[in-house]
Request: fold
Amino acid sequence: MLRTDSAHPTLRTLIAAACLVVAALARAESWQPADSSYAWRFPEDHWSHAGYRTEWWYLTAQLVAEDDPAARFGVQFTVFRIGLTPAPPALDSAWSASDLIMGHAAIGEFTAGAGKHHFSELAQRASPLLGGFGVYPDTLIAWSLAPAGTEGRWALAWNGEAFRVEMADSAQGLAYRLETRPLKPLALQGPNGYSRKGAGPSSASQYYSFTRLAVAGTLRVEGRERRVRGEGWFDKEFGSNQLEPQQVGWDWFSLQLADGRELMLYQLRDREGRTDWRRGTLIAADGAVRQLGWNDWQLEAQGSWQSPATGTRYPERWRVRVPGAQLELEVIPRLLAQENVGARSGLHYWEGAVELRGPDSAPRGQGYVELVGLGGGRPLSF
Reply:
């Protein structure tokens, strides 16, 4: 969500101007829409797609320290490509750009009954001097200079099987470098990876996931570095007009069940807070994908938690039911305070690690939940 009360007008103005340009170009129908007959090509489709308005790469993972299994962490790494023009600008300059690159990175520390959440962000024009997007078959997929005062860069790269990510923020004492390896085949989200977000045929994205990845590497929090390992989930989406005019946000769930299945659910909300569209997938232990329609699953938010930073109220936990799969889960945040608050951009949303329990309170797995557009702010229209 893009708030208008940021104390840093330079970045705020940059993002707002980009949104206006993007909206104007989208109305001119100059961007390529998602297509139900899209011909997927892997690994090439892990790289960026010029001509589509928005694109993002999303890794979330729950990790434990190798030297102390009681030390648990949650990690988010996100790269956004926000298109400014469908084709490269005619201006012959190293400063010209057809895209913005935005990065979000978070680390959650989880201990019994307590914890702490850390968030870092960056935004740059995609240019040779600041950041950009690689071209297949180069291993580098996306990169950006690290935040001011930090040497190096944030990067997403292909390691031959899946992805390598790295980030650092010296001011906050945060960093990680993680390698991933697929434990299950890639899953297309929606028929042929065509993920509808509304009734209109263009309200959609091309969407796929690696729903279970082995993740290992190093992580530094407040200056202390540790070796970590665990399991993660990777999402990739691209399209040009995902949200319909009345839609202002969404709730998204990526859940890894202890029995080897995964569950992805999303629902979009209108300006009155009503569910506007909902879909999901259930991935079997052998990788088979089952599409879930509106009435195939139920989601009930329970309780609420109010952010002291933004005043936004978020659900405290959820109950999920998929009757056709004999599945009933309690989804419980490992820490309530997992809101990402952009001190520079003014963006805020909840992105948190959760644990899963059955009706008998027995452990049933883990996952991540994302809540965007709550709190009455202006949404950034991805």
